[in-house]
């Protein structure tokens, strides 16, 4: 009877460890603070390389890939917090996406569009993590959007207004490697491994 109970406990612990490493819901960043994170691991202001206007942007900046649309460089702005060089829509429409080379725990950027709404969605290995829809325009200075307190490798963006013009500047993110793993997750995962090992030893007897 004790053996059966121990097996049940071990099995539950093993299953719990699987759920513990599943993507956690992210906390949306819905416009404030407009200056972004305090000390991000990576901050891209798009000045590096002095890329000319109207050049399509994909992998020119380290750690990130802009895809799913027509991301282009510009030095002219029609709104708030997009200064000097930054990105705009060169006609590719929406949705579009930002792919990170590695998993990140937090990511955000200044974003503005024609008056309407924008939907931001976070994914990890093509598995949905979280999304939110927010009003976006060219007049609100509190326009820093993104996600934090989770694990993801992609942000998909859908502009819900025509024309689908946008501007993006000051991309910031924190990499997974710089964040300590949650103690609870490590503890449950360790318990799961011990449980699996216990079951195997009992079967071998």
- Round the mean pLDDT to the nearest integer and report it: 80
Q: Strand portion, in percent?
A: 35-45%
CATH architecture: Sandwich
Per CATH, what is the topology?
Jelly Rolls
Number of strands: 11
How helix-rich are the residues, as a percent range? 10-25%
Number of structurally distinct domains: 1
The biggest beta sheet reads:
11 strands, antiparallel
Descriptors for this entry?
globular; Jelly Rolls; alpha+beta; 39% strand; 205 residues
Structure write-up:
It is built from two helices and eleven strands, in the order H-E-E-E-E-E-E-E-E-E-E-E-H. The chain has 205 residues and is of the alpha+beta class. It has a single domain, classed as Sandwich (Jelly Rolls), CATH 2.60.120. Strands 1, 2, 3, 4, 5, 6, 7, 8, 9, 10 and 11 form an eleven-stranded antiparallel beta sheet that branches. A hairpin with a 2-residue loop joins strand 7 and strand 8. Helix 1 (2-20) packs antiparallel against helix 2.
Question: Care to give the gist of this entry?
Answer:
This protein has 205 residues and is an alpha+beta fold. It is built from 2 helices and 11 strands. The protein is globular.
Question: What layout of secondary structure does this protein have?
Answer:
Layout: H1 2-20, E1 27-31, E2 42-44, E3 64-67, E4 71-74, E5 86-89, E6 96-113, E7 116-124, E8 127-136, E9 144-148, E10 152-159, E11 166-175, H2 183-204
Helix pairs in contact: 1-2
């Amino acid at each position: 009877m004790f053996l059966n109970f121990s097996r049940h406990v071990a099995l539950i612990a093993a299953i719990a460890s699987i759920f513990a490493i599943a993507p956690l819901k992210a906390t949306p960043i819905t416009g404030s603070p407009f200056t972004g994170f305090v000390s991000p691991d990576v901050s891209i202001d798009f000045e590096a390389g002095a890329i000319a206007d109207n050049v399509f942007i994909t992998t020119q900046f380290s750690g990130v890939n802009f895809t799913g649309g027509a991301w282009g460089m510009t030095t002219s702005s029609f709104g708030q917090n997009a200064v000097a060089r930054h990105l705009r829509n060169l006609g590719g429409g929406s949705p579009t996406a930002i792919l990170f080379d590695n998993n990140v725990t937090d990511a955000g950027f200044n974003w503005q569009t024609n008056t309407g709404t924008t939907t931001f969605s976070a994914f990890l290995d093509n598995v949905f993590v979280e999304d939110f829809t927010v009003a976006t325009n060219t007049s609100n200075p509190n326009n820093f959007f993104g996600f934090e307190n989770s694990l993801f490798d992609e942000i998909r963006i859908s502009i819900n207004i025509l024309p689908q013009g946008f501007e993006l500047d000051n991309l910031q993110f924190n990499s997974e490697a710089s964040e300590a793993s949650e103690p609870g997750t490590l503890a449950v995962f360790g318990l799961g491994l011990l449980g699996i090992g216990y079951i195997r030893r009992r079967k071998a007897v």
